[in-house]
Design brief:
This protein has 290 residues and is an alpha/beta fold. The protein is built from twelve helices and six strands. The chain has a six-stranded mixed beta sheet.
């Protein structure tokens, strides 16, 4: 075993996920992940820019994780490292945006092209179903539109198949399980699958190329979190806003906290780094600051 390999890094990290799966060279890896979720074979995969429209939507700078055009329709893949109160609303706005764009491009209101969102969600717990499928329908099950589908996969439950050594389910969901495994764990899974081995090598390469290694312990991680918040605060004029007690400062703090939540940091980590309680942080996040 190569002792220099980074062992604490997985694709649960937002940047790692995007670095791997938003790369044309790794298109086949992305395909097997999607095909595992949808239980179909897809062809003609083409990446679509993930930057959301600006203008009236007021969402400049917001991007989806992955957006593809395939022979099965438009497919949006979102990695949710932690479920937050706003995650579903945010992701639903993403897929609705894709649906609107698809309609505008097609110049009609036909339902011949499917628009699909796949959510790979951590933080749901190991109870419940492996995945849920959400459709637009009435209480009697009559579909309102036929071509919008949302899937949410419970990654906690799927990862539990690995840790409980459930061989049958590991074989079924190995391409989802690999996303939550570090390099040492991947060696075991890769021993029986060439695609997993390819993913393992790609993960190692990406983590080295962006300078992430296994020296990030808890103390260092907390320091990095504080540094990140301070940089965010400085960049947006947060410190000046806080000192003057201006409304803009509180708005910027809220924006910075939301951004860090989206990057996968927990409320406890952000609250600690900001020297506030989780309750105070939640009140800040719930505020409607004009």
């Amino acid at each position: 075993m190569n002792e220099s390999k980074p062992i604490n890094i997985t694709s649960i990290r937002d940047r790692i996920f995007k670095e791997i799966f938003h790369d044309e060279r790794n298109k086949e890896l992305l395909k097997v992940v999607i095909e595992t979720c949808l239980k179909i074979n897809i062809k003609g995969v083409r990446y679509i820019p993930t930057e959301l429209p600006q203008g009236n939507y007021q969402i400049k700078g917001k991007t989806m994780d992955i957006l593809l055009d395939t022979d099965k329709g438009k497919i949006n893949v979102e990695l949710n490292a932690r479920k937050s109160p706003y995650t579903n609303s945010r992701n639903f706005s993403y897929i609705c945006n894709v649906y609107i764009r698809n309609t505008l491009v097609g110049q009609d209101y036909g339902e011949n092209i499917d628009v699909i969102q796949i959510n790979l969600s951590f933080g749901l717990g190991i109870d419940g179903n492996v995945y849920e499928e959400y459709l637009v329908m009435n209480k009697r099950g009559k579909r309102y539109i036929k071509n919008l589908k949302i899937y949410e996969f419970n990654m906690d439950k799927i990862m539990d198949f690995w840790y409980s050594k459930n061989a049958r389910m590991i074989k079924k969901y190995k391409y989802l399980i690999m996303l939550g495994l570090n390099s040492l764990e991947l060696e075991e899974l890769a021993s029986e699958d060439k695609r997993v081995e390819e993913y393992m090598k790609t993960l190692d390469s990406v983590t080295v190329s962006i300078g992430i290694n296994d020296w990030i312990d808890e103390e260092t991680d907390q320091r990095f979190i504080r540094n990140t918040i301070e940089r965010e605060a400085t960049r947006k004029g947060l410190q000046k806003g806080l000192k003057q007690g201006l409304k803009e400062g509180r708005r910027t703090l809220r924006t910075a906290a939301l951004n860090l939540l989206e990057q996968g940091l927990s409320q406890e980590q952000i609250a600690s780094a900001c020297d506030m309680t989780v309750e105070e942080l939640n009140r800040l996040l719930d505020e409607k600051i004009k």
